[in-house]
Amino acid sequence: KQEVTQIPAALSVPEGENLVLNCSFTDSAIYNLQWFRQDPGKGLTSLLLIQSSQREQTSGRLNASLDKSSGRSTLYIAASQPGDSATYLCAVRGDNYGQNFVFGPGTRLSVLP
Amino acid sequence: EAQVTQNPRYLITVTGKKLTVTCSQNMNHEYMSWYRQDPGLGLRQIYYSMNVEVTDKGDVPEGYKVSRKEKRNFPLILESPSPNQTSLYFCASSPGQSRSYNEQFFGPGTRLTVL
Asked: Which residue of A has its CA nearest to B51?
């Protein structure tokens, strides 16, 4: 059964720092991996989607990488801002398209002004 | 605007009183799914549907029912709610398997309290 973990569970950094969030999964047979952010009490906003055949995706200050063979993905946030404060979740989809999604527990990020 | 909508957004009910949470998407997506989010347990999938009339259990299906009679709608039914179903519920959708880019889009969430 697929298990997804995220390290660290919480992170507090001063504004302007570059940071890396980590996501690990136990079964490398995935269809894709998606990163989300969630603000307190709100829904999930999609940040980046990486297909299993891809190594990385970039959107603005965000860069996500995928190493399927080692079961790892990282989300890199450049020049962090207070508005980046949120919980970041990664989710993997099994390589059988019909399989369900499995989410990690999230990393709670605080960017201090 | 492309979106996933859920209703109601907030619901307080009592044990045993049947309820339905509706979910609708306007993106012609084939795949739809329901999740619950609980502190310390994260997001867990309840049911999913790959297309009309095709549904399957996720990780925590007990106590829930779903139906997919139309492509755009995927209601979540609690026939006899219990307090342990108090949670934050999310509906999500994504394009079909034939599409190369299968990003999952989420609704705003429904906060359910069962007394």
From this structure: A98
